[in-house]
Amino acid sequence: MTGSTTSMSIRMDRVVKEQAQQLFKSLGMDMTTAINIFLRQALIRKGLPFEVTIKGADSVLLQKLVEADNDTDIHGPFHTTQELMEELNTDE
């Protein structure tokens, strides 16, 4: 390593630490090396070195809200609750 070094102390879940140590060991490195890689990549990219997204049901909801705002993928109008339920239950 070039330059002077320093130490850092962080708190994390014990199980996460153990699993990460096992993963990094299988990759031929220790936790310190992995964290240094992460930090250097963050500096190079000027941000997190991976995409941060909301996945799962929340992302589906957000997409549907965007579609509604843009008046796309709109169904209806429904004149009865039965019509609405039939549309919701159809497989596309």
Report on this structure:
The chain is mainly alpha-helical and about 90 residues long. It has two domains: about 30 residues, no CATH class; about 35 residues, no CATH class. It is built from four helices and no strands.
Which terms would index this structure?
92 residues; mainly alpha; 2 domains; 4 helices; 0% strand; DNA-damage-inducible protein J; Arc_rbn_hlx_hlx; toxin-antitoxin system; plasmid
Average pLDDT for all residues? 84
Helix content: 40-55%
Count of distinct structural domains: 2
Runs in which pLDDT lies below 50 for 5 or more consecutive residues are none
What profile does the largest beta sheet have? none
Strand content: under 5%
Number of strands: 0
- How far apart the termini lie comes to 57 Å
| Shape assignment | elongated
What is the structural class? Answer: mainly alpha
Order of helices and strands: HHHH
Number of helices: 4
Q: Which radius of gyration do the C-alpha atoms yield?
A: 24 Å
Keywords: Plasmid, Toxin-antitoxin system
Family: Belongs to the RelB/DinJ antitoxin family.
Protein name: DNA-damage-inducible protein J
InterPro entries: Arc_rbn_hlx_hlx, RelB/DinJ
